[in-house]
Amino acid sequence: MSTDSEIIQRSLEEPGVFSEIFERHVRPVGGYIRRRVGADAVDDVLSETFLVAFRRRASFELGTESARPWLLGIATRVVKSHRAAEARQWRAFEASASAGEVAAETPQVASESRIDADAALRALAPRIAALAAKDRDTLLLHAWGDLTYEQIAAALGVPVGTVRSRLNRVRRKLAPPGSHGAARLTWMAKEESDAAYGTSS
């Protein structure tokens, strides 16, 4: 099976081949976009993301095997031009978080060692919406894009150290030690610990 890099390189001469990249990555990229802008805007943002990717395919780093970080980086930038849709999505998350506030603060939830990242982020929606855009993008590429630190760095065009610094800052802002939010973000703490010892990135 051809790698993404090989397909993109071939698409420079045979543009139609790029459809294979779409077929391989439309679901994870679409899922990331849907979480960020909601169901109403996902199709527009998804289409624009792949159109931009097609037009810029000559700039793809051919030494990179997977195109997913590159595509998610493009999607993140496209989302910025759909701020109204993203704002509506965060308001919806905030509303659902408020509706479930009592249940979310129960001791059972607070004592979980690791909680699903998607549920955790939704529960902390008001704080996440208030983050600086660069910090929010980094967090969501990690949690919803399922990218490693190195892949996030490639997607955003920043050093890996910057990614680690941003995620550390995000964790401190979202979940001060001892808070219920800290329990929700234990998955982030584990990732950072693993990265420090070279067991994860």
Ordered list of secondary-structure elements with their pairings:
Blueprint: H1 4-11, H2 19-37, H3 39-55, H4 68-79, H5 83-99, H6 101-104, H7 107-110, H8 117-123, H9 125-129, H10 133-143, H11 149-156, H12 160-174, H13 180-184, H14 186-196
Helix pairs in contact: 2-3, 2-4, 3-4, 4-11, 10-12, 11-12
Condensed summary:
By secondary structure, the protein is mostly helical. The protein is 71% helix and 0% strand.
Overview of this structure, please?
The chain has 201 residues and is mainly α. It has two domains: 1-99, Rna Polymerase Sigma Factor, Chain: A (Orthogonal Bundle); 115-180, Arc Repressor Mutant, subunit A (Orthogonal Bundle), CATH 1.10.10. It has helices spanning 4-11, 19-37, 39-55, 68-79, 83-99, 101-104, 107-110, 117-123, 125-129, 133-143, 149-156, 160-174, 180-184, 186-196. It starts with a helix and ends in a 5-residue tail after the last helix. Mean pLDDT is 81; it is low at 101-115 and 193-201.
